[in-house]
Design a protein that fits this description.
With about 160 residues, the chain is α/β, with parallel strands linked by helices. The protein has one domain: 3-Layer(aba) Sandwich (Glutaredoxin). Helices cover about 40% and strands about 15% of the residues. The protein has six helices and five strands. A five-stranded mixed β-sheet has the order 1-3-2-4-5, covered by helices on one side. Helix 5 crosses helix 6. The protein is globular, with a radius of gyration of 16 Å. Bound molecules: 2-acetamido-2-deoxy-beta-D-glucopyranose (2 copies). One 2-acetamido-2-deoxy-beta-D-glucopyranose (NAG) binds next to loops.
């Protein structure tokens, strides 16, 4: 499993993954549920060598996680190519079936036409508004203008970590 070091790193990893399934694992070192789940996630990563497993340390990337609307841990997001985000869910050692079902559903080889989408426009804007990525990373800026007010409003919102 690869550790994500910055928002730009995450944006880049999602884009260069091409058509491969990418699984984002949001965790924190102090989260017991994450620790309990970790060995199983590692096993599943070994069993799915064609998928890319990426870890995001919530404690080190709080602003980014907030911008991506991650509020509970452990938390997972699946992405593939032009389809962008496929699913998003929390899961524990007891509910690992959720994760296995998601892999079974999305892990089979298939081809999504077009370039990888990665994060969506409003997520990229939220990251850029916090200075975590360069505005140049956002394609099609005119299309994005309408999200701006929405994103700026959102940055004042409190967030809680369960
Ligand atoms: C995780 O769940 C399994 C049962 O599925 C159990 O045997 C194991 O002890 C649990 N592990 C932890 C760390 O809670
Ligand atoms: C982008 O992702 C966010 C979650 O981070 C979601 O709430 C939002 O609806 C998505 N926006 C678009 C335009 O798909």
């Amino acid at each position: 499993m690869l550790e994500i070091n910055s928002a730009q790193d995450l944006v880049d990893c999602l884009l260069i993954a091409g058509d491969r399934l990418v699984i984002l694992d949001f965790y924190s070192p102090g989260c017991g549920g994450c620790k309990a789940l970790h060995p199983k996630i590692c096993q599943l990563a070994e069993m799915n060598p064609d998928s890319i497993f990426l870890k995001v340390n919530f404690e080190q990337h709080k602003v980014m996680c907030h911008a991506l609307h991650v509020h509970v841990l452990p938390f997972f997001r699946f992405y593939r190519g032009a389809d962008g985000r496929l699913c998003s869910f929390s899961c524990t050692n007891a509910t690992i079936k959720k994760f296995k079902d998601a892999i079974a559903k999305h892990g089979t080889d298939r081809c999504s036409l077009g370039p990888a989408q990665g994060l969506n426009d409003s997520e990229l804007l939220a990251l850029a508004s916090h200075g975590l990525i360069s505005k140049n990373s956002i394609p099609n800026p005119t299309e994005n203008d309408k999200f701006e007010s929405l994103v700026l409003e959102d940055t004042g919102a409190p967030f809680a970590l369960a």
